[in-house]
User: Fold this.
Amino acid sequence: GLRDRDYPYRKPDNTVRIVGLGDSSIFGWGVDMTETSLHLLEQRLNQQASGTRYEVINFAVPGYNTAIETEVFLKKCLKYDPDLVILHFNTNDYDIPNFMKRPQSYATLRTSFLFDFIYTRCQQRQGKRAEEALAPMVFGPLEETEQLDESPAIPEEYRYMVGKRGFLAAMEKLLIALKKRQIPLLVLIIKPETGTDTFRGRQLALIRQLSQERGFGLLNTYPRYAEYLRQHPERSNEDFWISRTDTHPSALAHEIEAQAFYEFLTTRADVLPLL
Assistant:
């Protein structure tokens, strides 16, 4: 269930384990597994290690939001005895997770998962949405997702996981579980300094406030991208995308983030004391 190699549940001796949570960005949509930021981080840590081995396990899944990522940590990550959690907070993490459908009965031979998959993808290519899918707000104004938990378009049983309140509840649940086990947290965010009058600015301010109040590490890699463009004027923002029509991080973007992870972790003993 991971976009990674297989790891035994039992952690080997003299091993530090880092688990990564997030959606398609940190998952590495559109790039090879060996080009992802988490894989590159593992390589760099082990290149400098002496007597300690580092394992960085990628639990990210495209379309997930913070609520589901918290459940992944509780139900999957803990089995691997992690020493650090890296959580990627994305702009659309207030939204309903992609690919979710309304409850339906699969206890019938008349259901074909293959037909359902092909039909849904054909509908998407035509710009349509499967009728049974939950209505995503990501294609509308981002500001609307802050109060998505109040939207009648979202079934009541799913409202706990969306909107600003849903995100805060998920973070609280994750932070309580981490504190209980004394596992440090590093949150990755990529946002410019735009002030609290913008949606992204409010998200950045919220994460900073949480970081200060709850004591977890925060890494904003946006300045890294800006600095790269200053040093390479022949480049543009499109070099950070996998294509002109798909803004998922390119191999170059993953390399920049891996270096940012590495420098942060090797200079912050309070985040990962074993380094």
Observations:
- The mean pLDDT is 89.
- Helices lie at 24-27, 37-48, 66-75, 113-125, 163-181, 199-214, 222-231, 251-265.
